[in-house]
Amino acid sequence: xxxxxxxxxxxxxxxxxxxxxxxxxxxxxxxxxxxxxxxxxxxxxxxxxxxxxxxxxxxxxxxxxxxxxxxxxxxxxxxxxxxxxxxxxxxxxxxxxxxxxxxxxxxxxxxxxxxxxxxxxxxxxxxxxxxxxxxxxxxxxxxxxxxxxxxxxxxxxxxxxxxxxxxxxxxxxxxxxxxxxxxxxxxxxxxxxxxxxxxxxxxxxxxxxxxxxxxxxxxxxxxxxxxxxxxxxxxxxxxxxxxxxxxxxxxxxxxxxxxxxxxxxxxxxxxxxxxxxxxxxxxxxxxxxxxxxxxxxxxxxxxxxxxxxxxxxxxxxxxxxxxxxxxxxxxxxxxxxxxxxxxxxxxxxxxxxxxxxxxxxxxxxxxxxxxxxxxxxxxxxxxxxxxxxx
Length: 390
Known about the structure:
- It is a single chain.
- By secondary structure, the protein is α/β, with parallel strands linked by helices.
- The chain has a single domain, classed as TIM Barrel.
- The protein is built from 16 helices and ten strands.
- It has an eight-stranded parallel β-sheet with strand order 3-10-9-8-7-6-5-4.
- Strand 7, helix 13 and strand 8 form a beta-alpha-beta unit.
- The protein is globular.
- It starts with 7 loop residues before the first helix and ends in a 26-residue tail after the last helix.
- The relative contact order is 0.20.
């Protein structure tokens, strides 16, 4: 009889068992020494909660809003590249699980399933789309128009990938989609029969938002050459203004780590910013997201809605982020662990685990409404100090 799945770590272990090494490592790694990747998680653990007793815990609610949209809990599924390589048709599975649970799903520009695939699979249910700024502005305009046509209800603009941080494991594994049929890859995939069978059943094995939508990009060889040249190191706040005007809807800026950048984000007219270090995959040695959050929220939280991602593996982590000023959070790796473990069922399980932990921890801290949680639930001496004072 299989062991019951009770936490995200259980899903992670199954994910590692069932997914080829190069894709599991792509999920569970950071840049260079991975110090920021590790800190994203460990810095949450250092923050301690105040337990309260003899408080009426009936009638609890985790319902709130993110950028004015109703959510079952303040958690969205983060945009993750290559999701359809963790599990066949992974983006479609993730979007369906999010729709059923009542939380936002964010599709990455670098997804395997296309915008149109996800829209068809969810029956036109709104989802969010994450945009990378490429040098090919005509392609960016077309992507924005495709997101509009697919009924996307928010555009999430990533600002911290003008250039790529080096991730040693991806280089050593020869990461590609689909995987190159080298002897080590074939031997590894032979130990993942469930993954192989699912991938054989789907035609979606390359970057669905790009292949066939860019002139001259019709296969993986031409795609690799195109993407290597396309991330735009010249991205600036003028581009943000242009994209905001072109999009015309709710705009979220992802990748803010510094108070000065947060002020610029607040002045840009965007609806929200995400305190994020790209999961520790860009600047190694940067502060963890939870460490940067409090100072940013205190400085600009009255001007722009604050979200955060990076290191969230439990509902307790979500609650700590809310206490430090976030109005919403995102799960990337926790989502991928569920997906790689059990497809849509695993994503639903990950959301259920995080929701239950959030609900119970909120009650233990003396609250029944997630919208009223503040710093009073934290032990003050364990709260990260502002970075300029640390």
